[in-house]
Amino acid sequence: MKCGLFEMINILTNSLVPIFVGLLLGYAAGLRKIVDNKDVKGLITFLMTFALPCSMFVIIARTPQQLLWGQVKSAVVLAIVYMAVFVATYYASRNLGKDTAANSIVLASTIGFPNTTGVGFPLLQAVYGPESSVTVAVALAVGAFTLTPITLAILEAGTSSCRTLPHAARIRTSLWRALKKPVFWAPVLGVLAAVVKLHTPVYFDNSLIILGNATEGTALFVTGLIASAQRFNLNWGVGWAILGKNVIQPALCLAIALLVGMPLEQTRYIVLLCALPSGFFGILFGESFNATPAVASSSLIASTVLGIFTLAGWIVLLSHLHW
Question: Domains of the chain: which residue ranges?
Fold first, then answer.
């Protein structure tokens, strides 16, 4: 642990307050009709087709090959944890909440995929140092390879063009459409670039970085816009979602890491990554398919606010781990 209590509070404040401010600005802009919160398709298209894929490619492609290979065990544990929470949330929403498949998958993606892009890099670097950045990049890639195609495939399967197809054809078509989207193949290309040690011209990298730098601010603002079109509700569904994201997911990660004998430092990295607040990918994916469940946006906001306290607790707990 590289920081005291005061420094930890300062780190959490500096990491999470800007996230909340971005959400709040988008929320206020939509509520006061400064920006149309009913038609955000153009912003979504820019974000999901250009900004986010560029950001994911650059982050992963810049990771040294030898460091990527050393993250295999971390990637497997994160994939298991992400999928477990993802599947459990989807099942609960469909069977207990009686919600649609599209709304359920949006909620599952929101809870299952932490806000690695917005909070992961600044928080882990501040707490554990720059050596943790590789694990953050791997966590981002794991979510992109596992949760993203499943989420997009189920959303695609609910479109009018897919519903008329036979069941097997619907699965093939929806999966193929999901795999064609830049948010899936950009991180795949990033991994390939890292593996083959691809050296691209500086102007090419800088062009991608300029677009990629727009990701976090745009995503937070658009998420706030989407949330402003709905009523914020703090109900049992949101409560369970926050418990699942901020407490159960990191606890499950810690249990699995202990079970498989993960090194201490890597255990701290991946558990803290799982303790991050809810991510915005699910809501952004859902908006493109007119699937915007209120419980997902409410959970994202509440998870971010309460994350100041739950993250502090997890950092303290992880600092006392020794073996």
Answer: 5-319
